[in-house]
Amino acid sequence: MKLWGGRFTKETNQLVHSFNESLSFDSRLFRQDIRGSIAHVTMLAKQGILTNTERDLILEGLNSILADMESGALQPDLQYEDIHSFIEANLIERVGDVGKKLHTGRSRNDQVALDMKLYVRDEIPVLNTGIMNLMDTLETIMKENVHTYMPGFTHLQKAQPTTLAHHFGAYYEMFRRDLSRLADLHERMNECPLGAGALAGTTYPLDREYTAELLDFNCATSNSMDSVSDRDYLIDLLSALSIIMMHLSRFSEEIILWNSNEYQFVELDDSYSTGSSIMPQKKNPDIAELVRGKTGRVYGHLMALLTTMKGLPLAYNKDMQEDKEGVFDALDTVIDCLTLFTGMVKTMKFRKDVMEKSAAKGFTNATDAADYLVNHGVPFRDAHGIIGQLVLTCLDKGISLDELPLEDYKAISPVFEEDIYDAISMKTCVEKRMTLGAPGEYITRYQD
Ligand code: ARG
C-alpha cells in the first residue's frame, strides 16, 4: 500500500493514515496524473533510460487505468495515501514489475506540482466559458436597452439619469477584466515543473524541455527547488476567483435591491426564486443572496493559502497538501455561481416603466440644468448655486424641475428661456451624453 515502506518497521497508525491521506480529495487529479506519467515515460524512453518495450507496456497500463477510472470501473481505494500512489500501485498490478520503473527520475513533489498546474490549466477554459456566457447574456440585454432610462446612483442616492445598457455595461467591463486576469495567470504559470525531482533535480539525463513540450507548456521551470515549492499560481488563481466573486456579489446586491418591493426595477423569474414556509406572499432572491454569500467562502480560501504558505522554508513541505481542497472548492463554487447567475439574469424581467419613472424623480437632471446656464455664459459655480435654490423651491412645491413654471426660473435668472425644458428632458440628459463610455455613446455603439 505504501510507496515508502522500506525504512519502516511498524505499520502506520490508522489515525495517522487518515489524517495524512489526500486521496479522498486529490483523486479528481487522476487524468492530469496519468497525462503527466505518459509524458514522463515517453521522455524516459527517448533518453534511453527505459526501452521502447518497457515504455509501451507502461503506456498500455496507464491508458487502461485512465479508461477504467473514466468509466468508474476503477474506484480510488482509500487505503492508499494519494492519487499518485494509487495509480502507481494499480499500474504494477496490471503490468507487473516493469510498472516499478515509472517513477524513475521523478518525485511526488514534482509530480503533484505538475498535476495541480495541469488541473488549473484545464479549468481555465471552463471559467472562461462561464464568464463569456454571462457577458453574452449581458450584451443581449444591453443592445435592447440603450434607450431604457433609469437612475444612476452615487451613495445610493439618485445622481444622474442613465440607461440599463450603460449600467450593465459597467459589469460587462468587470467581467472582461476577469477574463484577462485568468489569461495573465495562465501565461505566467505555464512552465513545466516535471523533472525537478524531490528538490534538486536528478542525475538521470532527463530532457525536461521535451516533457514540457509534450505537455504543452511554454518551457520547463528554471529552478528545481522553486518548481516543487511554488504555489504562487494557485494564489493568483484564488485572487482572480475572489475578484470574480466580488463582481458577482456586487451585481447580486443590486439585483436583490432592484427586486425588492421598494425598487421593483426587476422581477426574478419564478424558476429562479424561492418561497417562505410561513409568509405566503414571499418570493425571495435566494440565488443572488447565495452568490453574495459564497463570496466569503472563496475569499476564505485565498486567505487560507496565503497563510499556509507564509512561513514555509524551501522546498516541499506537507503543509502544501492543504492547497487542494480550497482550490477545488473555489473553482467549483465560482463555476456554479457563474452558471446560476447567468440563468437568473437571462430569465429576469425588467420593469422599464418603473425604472423610467424613477429616473425622472429625484432631480437627476439638476446637473444638466446647471450646464444650461453654463452654456449661456454663467460660471459653473454660480450655476450650481442657482439650481440648488431652484431645487429647494421645487421641494417646497412638491414638483420636479420639469414641472417648475418658466416664471420661477426667470425670477432667479433672466437667462432661462423656454428651451430649458428641452435641455433637462430625460432624452437630452441621457442621449446627449456622447463622451466615450457614457450612456449616449452606447446608442451609437450598438447601432447596427
Ligand atoms: N499528497 C501530497 C500533496 O498533495 C503529494 C506530495 C507528497 N510528497 C511527499 N514528499 N510527501 O502535496
Task: Explain what the structure shows.
The chain is mainly alpha-helical and 448 residues long. It folds into three domains: 100 residues, Orthogonal Bundle (Fumarase C, Chain B, domain 1), CATH 1.10.275; 249 residues, Fumarase C, Chain A, domain 2; 88 residues, Ribonucleotide Reductase Protein R1, domain 1 (Orthogonal Bundle), CATH 1.10.40. It contains 19 helices and six strands. Strands 1-2 form a two-stranded antiparallel sheet. Strand 3, helix 8 and strand 4 form a beta-alpha-beta unit. Helix 11 packs antiparallel against helix 12. The longest helix is centred in the N-terminal third of the chain and has 37 residues. The chain starts with 13 loop residues before the first helix and ends with a helix. The model has no long low-confidence stretch (mean pLDDT 96). Bound molecules: arginine (ARG). The site of arginine (ARG) has 11 residues, from helix 6.
What class would the helix/strand composition place it in?
A: mainly alpha
Shape: elongated
Runs with pLDDT <50, length 5+? none
What is the fold named in CATH at topology level of the largest domain?
A: Fumarase C, Chain A, domain 2
Q: In the CATH classification, which architecture of the largest domain applies?
A: Up-down Bundle
From the N-terminal CA to the C-terminal CA, the straight-line distance is 66 Å
Enumerate how many helices there are, as a single number.
19
Q: Roughly what is the average pLDDT, rounded to an integer?
A: 96
Q: Strand arrangement, largest sheet? A: 1-2
Describe the main β-sheet briefly.
2 strands, antiparallel
Order of helices and strands: HHHHHHEEHEHEHHEHHEHHHHHHH
Helix fraction, binned, reads: 55-70%
Beta percentage is under 5%
